[in-house]
Amino acid sequence: LNLETTYACHCNAGFSGDGHTCFDIDECQSQGGLEGHHCHSNTRCVNTPGGYECECLPGHRRLDRFNCVEIDECSTGTHQCNPHATCRNTQGSYHCLCQDGYTGDGYKCTPICSQTCLNGGECVRPGECQCRKGYVGNSCESDLDECTAGLHNCQP
Predict the structure, then answer these.
(1) Judgement on whether residues 32 and 55 belong to the same structural domain of the protein
(2) Model pTM?
(3) 151 — pLDDT class (breaks 50, 70, 90)
(4) Cβ proximity of 54 and 65 under 8 Å
């Protein structure tokens, strides 16, 4: 009576070899087919043991297992632009430009003031000073007379 049994070893999917010794297939080395990756737009193939993953490029979000789409940080409000800057979307990122009358890198914009704010006043917008208490005028040049303006708490 012959009780001899036979068997065959096979490597799991994502591995190659003779069945006794198996090696990981780097699917990222080729695209498509049985042993290549299927990552598409805005992704980067990352080899994993027995498989691969499609990683989204910076500034992109996952659409499905193989595709990512660009994030428009300007329309989603996820940008870091200054309130006095304009956001411009770019592929995978964005940049900020200070609006007319302001200067800076777009993340920090300071007003360009043609006039000098006097008496400790501070330029808050082009052509506009925010005066310290007690001063008025376009350039904070006038001392406010609280008595004649009725802005005092004096008893008669």
Answers:
(1) yes
(2) 0.56
(3) low
(4) yes
